[in-house]
Write a structure and sequence with these properties.
heterodimer; A: about 80 residues; mainly beta; four-stranded antiparallel sheet; globular; B: about 425 residues; alpha+beta; D-Amino Acid Oxidase, Chain A, domain 2; 2 domains; eight-stranded mixed sheet; six-stranded mixed sheet; 21 strands; sarcosine oxidase activity (chain A)
Chain lengths: ~80, ~425
């Protein structure tokens, strides 16, 4: 099974984690128009290559963390914790 | 069929006997190799069932034949050759039911239309319900289907047992079967034959099919498409470029700067050794994330839901096979001695509402037929027909009007998750 490295728990089976998705910057809900909000909800960069994303370690430390992953070969490298 | 004045030989029982007896020599090539022209009226990116069907219907219905289909590998090498070949139209939304039913209708006489045996077997399609909420969705789908004239009904475990005697419908299983949505016109088809049939017909109309021709760039001048550039250094000009790719639809749309509400996920499938025929319906279980059908050769084909995270990797994984085997044995414990021959993965461009993205884009001349998630193959003929009409008339026909790219920002989603997530 593919291993994913949690910054708190180390390398664990990917089945322990939940994929949250691409790290995106959220528009301010107070000022965003419906179109901007839908764009934030639905659109993705979806690159073939390195991408910054968020995962949740549900069967471990139960923390959200950021990681960079190459979507072509699933190689990983650490990234700063996303807000 | 005419081929620039020269007739494409028709396939028939007579020609089969004649060739079988050694007369007539080698079978001719089904489609030809061409040197790319410098300009075409329409360039279609992606040589799968969608791209080739679009080319076929552009030529057949609209008389547009100066078309190039550019395929980066060989035709049918992507989703068209990796799906589990299941056809059905028992969807959830009226837009979806009407659309996929048109596709099943086109598939029903596709072999005659293309003069190519596509081996469509309408053996019935069954979606199991293991809990009250899915049984309620099955009733909902059955009623929507009936209103649209699609043959679909909910059956009880006794009737399921009659149709599939090997199924464990007892109450003692972990996920007891409470009923099923039964859809008699659904079935399986030979997916490669569909690709080859459309390729042969498009070729006979004068369409150029260029394999091993990867598009690396699309030229846009003042918000209008002017042509494409290929990996071997060619520039092909065209006023119309159609993105008919699956798996790479974001990467192609990025070339013209059109953002896509798409995430690419792998979906894995597997096939067993062949055995004698015992399963003559398609069986799907959303709860168990699996679907099973038996091919004409006797192999069991298994599919699943998409992998749990986005990726462009098509490597299979052992945990998928373990999970799949467990789920299949929940349904049919008698299969425990069957051996898997191979497994593979295909790429699915998932959209937020599990419906496709078809039609025009903000860039003039750039059309999309993408976002085909896990339901693209069954929609091949109707997509080709509708995209051809869209390109010829410059606006989407009514049947795909609900599937435009603008629906996401405008908030008009066509929610098909209840019928498309695992239900192939």
């Amino acid at each position: 099974m593919m291993l994913l490295t949690c910054p708190n728990c180390g390398a664990r089976n990917v089945s322990e984690f939940r994929y949250v998705g691409e790290a995106k910057s959220r528009p301010d809900p107070e000022t965003a128009t419906p179109e901007q909000w839908r764009r934030y909800l639905y659109f993705h960069r979806n690159p073939a290559g390195w991408i910054k994303e968020t995962w949740y370690h549900g069967s471990g430390c139960r923390r959200y963390f950021g990681i960079e992953r190459n979507t072509v070969d699933n190689a990983q490298r650490p990234a700063g914790v996303t807000s | 069929m005419s081929r620039n004045g020269q007739r494409t030989p028709r396939y028939s029982a007579w020609s089969l006997v004649r060739h079988g007896l050694g007369a007539g020599g080698e079978w001719g090539r089904a489609f030809r190799h061409h040197t790319p022209r410098q300009a075409y009226d329409v360039v279609i990116i992606g040589g799968g069932v969608h791209g080739l069907a679009t080319a076929h219907y552009l030529a057949e219905n609209h008389g547009i034949t100066n078309i190039a289909v550019l395929e980066k590998s060989y035709i049918g090498s992507g989703g068209s050759g990796r799906n589990t070949a299941i056809l059905r139209s028992n969807y959830l939304t009226p837009e979806g039911v009407r659309f996929y039913d048109r596709s099943v209708k086109l598939y029903e006489h596709l072999a005659a239309d293309l003069n190519f045996n596509v081996m469509f077997s309408q053996r019935g399609h069954m979606t199991l319900a293991h809990n009250d909420s899915s049984l309620r969705t099955m009733h909902w789908r059955a009623e929507v289907n009936k209103l649209q004239g699609v043959d679909s009904s909910v059956i009880d475990p006794g009737e399921i047992k009659k149709l599939v005697p090997y199924m464990d419908v007892s109450a003692s299983t972990r996920y007891p079967i409470l009923g099923a949505l039964y859809h008699p016109p659904g079935g399986i088809i030979r997916h490669d034959a569909v690709v080859w049939g459309y390729a042969r017909s498009a070729d006979a109309h004068g369409v150029h099919i260029h394999q091993k021709t990867e598009v690396v760039g699309i030229d846009v001048t003042s918000n209008r498409v002017t042509g494409v550039r290929t990996a071997d250094g060619r520039r092909i000009s065209a006023p119309v470029v159609v993105n008919c790719t699956a798996g790479w639809s974001t990467l192609i749309s990025d070339m013209v700067g059109v953002d896509m509400p798409v995430q690419t996920f792998p979906l894995q499938a597997a096939v067993t050794e062949p055995v004698k025929p015992f399963l003559d319906t398609v069986v799907v279980s959303g709860t168990l994330h699996t679907y099973v059908s038996q091919t004409d050769r006797g192999e069991l084909v298994f599919g699943a839901s998409v992998d749990p995270f986005a990726s462009y990797s098509t490597r299979g994984s052992l945990d998928f096979v373990e999970g799949l085997a467990g789920h299949v044995l929940e349904l049919m414990p008698a299969l425990s001695k069957m051996r898997l021959l191979r497994q593979w993965a295909g790429l699915c461009d998932m959209t937020p509402d599990y419906s496709p993205i078809m039609g025009l884009t903000p860039v003039e001349g750039f059309f999309v037929d993408v976002g085909w998630g896990t339901y693209g193959f069954k929609a091949g003929p109707v997509s080709g027909e509708a995209m051809a009409a869209c390109i010829a008339h410059g606006k989407p026909p009514e049947i795909i009007a609900a599937f435009g790219l603008d629906r996401f920002e405008e908030g008009r989603l066509v929610g098909e998750k209840g019928a498309a997530a695992v239900g192939h």
